[in-house]
């Protein structure tokens, strides 16, 4: 497997999250949406262009937040998308008009991750540095008496379900720190399982364990003592101290976890209580932060991720899944290098049908196409 890339586009601030608009909204032409450190959203045409016009065209621009955008996701019908920000808000946008149609309140820390339900155009989940997982319905409105009702503006939305302290240990749930506040473990990634509309998986900064939540069993709008339906062992403890999870990626049968020990673990989604069946590694892969992410190709053949060293790593996982075998080498796609020999971290990546996008700290976005 080889990939080819042309010159990258430049954004106005370091890009933090990337996702392709589903083709139902773009007449089949790939458009990449990029959220950046200053709270802006850029829409980039990813169509191949002549060499003399190799830079991609900016086809839309939106000032969405006053602070960094950490994640951006589309609804399953792609009519709406939501942006998660360090300003502790989630904002809902109309894809066609780019109008701001809703604001979600409730998190008390930077919102790190989003996942839209595969079965509902209006329900999605979020995870944040405040240690909570929240589920939202864009059709609802804020129930507080003090809420301002906007008849012609964005709705104020409350969570329909909150799971507090989602990744605190049993002892931490009972313990308080020296100044009387509960211990908080950041939730760094979240994903709906594809074939179960009631099942969510989440992971955090404290260790490599993944928790499976059945949202049907949670009682009331706030559940401070919710228990996961299952939990994977922490595979990272085999290498000494625990390492957190930077990102989750799931298809119909496998869940992949990118951990800060620079190993990707693969679990069958029908058994999230056993150890990982597959490990993906590379001697040059470095994931030491919670900004590096993964993406699966639409056919689930390729799994790609960024790295601290300015490189994109891609594995052909089709054989690994069939034989449940690990891999220790990846195809390496060189994105960028900083000054004085240093590297710019490649954080977010995403796939469309035949193109892979990557973004870097050097404010560039690259598009890669597999070559026969």
From TrEMBL:
Question: What one GO molecular function would you report for this record?
Answer: protein-macromolecule adaptor activity
Record keyword ATP-binding present: no
Q: Which spans of this chain does UniProt mark as WD repeats?
A: 62-103, 104-146, 197-223, 294-325, 339-372
Per UniProt, which keywords does this protein have? Answer: Repeat, Ubl conjugation pathway, WD repeat
Q: Which Pfam families match?
A: WD40
Region Disordered: start-end pairs: 221-244
* InterPro entries linked to this entry: WD-repeat_CDT2_adapter (IPR051865), WD40/YVTN_repeat-like_dom_sf (IPR015943), WD40_PAC1 (IPR020472), WD40_repeat_CS (IPR019775), WD40_repeat_dom_sf (IPR036322), WD40_rpt (IPR001680)
Q: List, alphabetically, the GO terms of the cellular component aspect.
A: nucleus
**Residue spans of biased composition, Low complexity class:** 221-230
- One GO process term, biological-process aspect: proteasome-mediated ubiquitin-dependent protein catabolic process
Q: In which pathway does it act?
A: Protein modification; protein ubiquitination
Q: Which residues cross the membrane?
A: none
Q: Family, per the entry? A: Belongs to the WD repeat cdt2 family.
This protein is called: WD40 repeat-like protein
């Amino acid at each position: 497997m080889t990939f080819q890339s042309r010159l990258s586009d430049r954004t106005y601030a370091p890009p933090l999250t990337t996702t392709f608009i589903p083709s139902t909204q773009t007449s089949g032409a790939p458009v990449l949406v990029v959220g950046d450190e200053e709270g802006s959203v850029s829409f980039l045409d990813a169509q191949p262009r002549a060499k003399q016009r190799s830079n991609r065209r900016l086809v839309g621009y939106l000032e969405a937040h006053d602070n960094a955008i950490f994640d951006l996701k589309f609804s399953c019908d792609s009519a709406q998308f939501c942006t998660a920000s360090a300003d502790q808000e989630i904002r809902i946008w109309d894809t066609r008009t780019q109008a701001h149609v809703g604001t979600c309140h409730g998190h008390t820390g930077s919102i790190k991750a989003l996942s839209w339900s595969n079965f509902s155009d209006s329900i999605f989940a979020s995870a944040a540095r405040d240690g909570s997982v929240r589920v939202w319905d864009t059709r609802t409105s804020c129930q507080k008496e003090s809420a301002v009702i906007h008849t012609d503006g964005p709705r104020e939305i409350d969570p329909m379900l909150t799971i507090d302290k989602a990744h605190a240990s049993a002892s931490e749930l009972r313990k308080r720190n020296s100044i009387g506040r509960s211990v908080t473990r950041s939730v760094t990634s979240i994903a709906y399982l594809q074939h179960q509309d009631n099942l969510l998986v989440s992971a955090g900064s404290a260790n490599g364990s993944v928790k499976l939540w059945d949202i049907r069993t949670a009682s009331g709008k706030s559940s401070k003592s919710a228990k996961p339906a299952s939990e994977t062992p922490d595979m990272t403890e085999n290498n000494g101290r625990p390492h957190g999870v930077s990102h989750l990626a799931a298809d119909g049968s496998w869940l992949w976890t990118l951990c800060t020990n620079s190993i990707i673990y693969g679990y069958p989604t029908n058994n999230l209580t056993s150890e990982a069946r597959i490990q993906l590694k590379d001697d040059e892969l470095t994931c030491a932060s919670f900004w590096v992410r993964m993406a699966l190709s639409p056919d689930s053949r390729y799994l790609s991720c960024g790295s601290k060293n300015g490189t994109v790593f891609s594995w052909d996982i089709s054989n690994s899944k069939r034989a449940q075998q690990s891999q220790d080498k990846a195809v390496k796609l060189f994105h960028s290098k900083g000054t004085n020999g240093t590297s710019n971290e490649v954080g977010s990546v995403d796939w469309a049908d035949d193109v892979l996008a990557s973004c870097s700290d050097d404010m560039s976005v690259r598009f890669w196409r597999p070559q026969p």
